[in-house]
Amino acid sequence: MTTNTSDTHPRSDDALVASLTEGLADADLEGLQPGQPGWAPRDEYEPEAESLAAVFRERGTIDVADLRAVWVHWFSDDLSGYTPDQLEAVVADLRTRAAAP
């Protein structure tokens, strides 16, 4: 059974999106090097974070299928270059960030 962590840890949408944006920037699944001089801005993954925040708000969790769906939508990339373990690690980090108070 999945616990709906959005009920136990309410946060503003802005804080949730910011936290997920940071997590996606740290994971940098597209190799855009957000925040690095001469590369993408640190908030490069904000639209994707907004999509994942909507999923989290609706279901109280994020899973690998959600991450893949968002990536296909925004990048036409199904993340097949990553192993399931790598993607699960990214999603675990995003879940932790989303559930943080």
How would you describe this structure to a colleague?
With 101 residues, the protein is an all-alpha fold. It has one domain. Helix content is 60%, strand content 0%. It contains five helices and no strands. It has helices spanning 5-8, 13-27, 46-59, 64-75, 84-99. The two termini are 22 Å apart.
Distance between the termini: 22 Å
Approximately how much helix is present in the residues? 55-70%
**Mean pLDDT over the residues:** 91
Oligomer: single chain
Overall number of domains: 1
Gist of the model:
By secondary structure, the chain is mainly alpha-helical.
Structural key phrases:
101 residues; mainly alpha; disordered N terminus
Topology:
Layout: H1 5-8, H2 13-27, H3 46-59, H4 64-75, H5 84-99
